[in-house]
Amino acid sequence: MSPSLGDMEPAEAESVYFNEYPSPKALPKHEALARAFIDLHVEANRRVVLVTSGGTTVPLEAQTVRFIDNFSAGTRGATSAEYFLEQGYAVIFLHRQYSLLPYSRHYSHSTNCFLDFLDEAPPSNGSMDGSIIVRNEYQNQMRDVLRKYRYAKKNNLLLLLSFTTVAEYMFELRAMAKLMNPLGPNALFYLAAAVSDFFIPCSRMAEHKIQSSEIPANFRDNAVDSDEIYTGENENQAPRNSKKLVINLDPVPKFLHRLVDGWAPDGSMIVSFKLETDPTLLVYKARTALQTYAHHLVIGNMLSTRKWEVVFITPDEPYERWIRVPKTRRSKSISGAEDQVGLAEITKGKVGQANETS
Ligand code: 9Z3
After folding, report:
1. Which of 4, 26, 149, 339 could be bridged to 103 by S-S, CB 3.0 to 4.6 A?
2. Does the record carry Lipoprotein as a key word (predicted)?
């Protein structure tokens, strides 16, 4: 049996993993865009942050009908990107396709349909139809968001790049980190994306849609009748005619090692997130991650309270610091878009600020 990627040295796991997958089709275009973006900001001596956001998918079939998804709407990433822009960073926003984006997040996935923000003005100059305008109650907030969005666009401060699968995410992360090398200490990595821990290697993935009902024998290759169907096993071990689906996943190599030791520029700052549901594990897991990968900051959050509290785990004092949004500030914005713990602290290069409690 060949060794699992999880048992290999990080550098070996890297070469095995990246050799197994074809590089994403969009990668050359993303690299060209990122290179131009980074050159511009190196020239301006501006700090650049790579914000990753949203969940990765794990396809069950090469021609994918079914996939496993990781929880994340992209609120943390999109909100934090706005804070980074406010603090003068240029932002590469590497996000799950169709997840929340900076600025448009206030309207795109809000409790209102975007049409609810609009109105028709009374017709003028003899016209039958009035212009479409923003409703009165949304004018101020929308003007503010629009100005910030326009400013970021006009000054080329925000680059949007998307991924879907965990493999695409890995290729993009590696490519972006390497391209960011000329930034040196002006580079920051803020890894809020919810990255799957398990995947099916290409070599063991079913090509076609996994069948749940009987397929006549003359349509099947090497099929064995059984009550179970296996995916992630070798093709000839996998009965194609069955009732139960058994999925066999491998661990995704821990690429944070490679980011810290190989891909990211010397002197850059690396911030990762740790998501848990069991409160007794959160601090332990976040601290273990920090010790294992030896980066700069792990931000721990619980699924149920992630919008109101996070814990910063640092290698130096204070080691553990909780930041909580007081109950009175937990309201939704006028658009209905939810806000999150304001991680302005990180964007200022500080850990902890006004709304913290311990
Ligand atoms: C997070 O923990 C993010 O804060 C959330 C944000 C995904 C909870 P939303 O997008 O949610 O605002 O809905 N991200 C990191 C999750 C993750 O996959 N971390 C890995 C782990 O926990 C380490 S890289 O093992």
Report:
1. 149
2. no
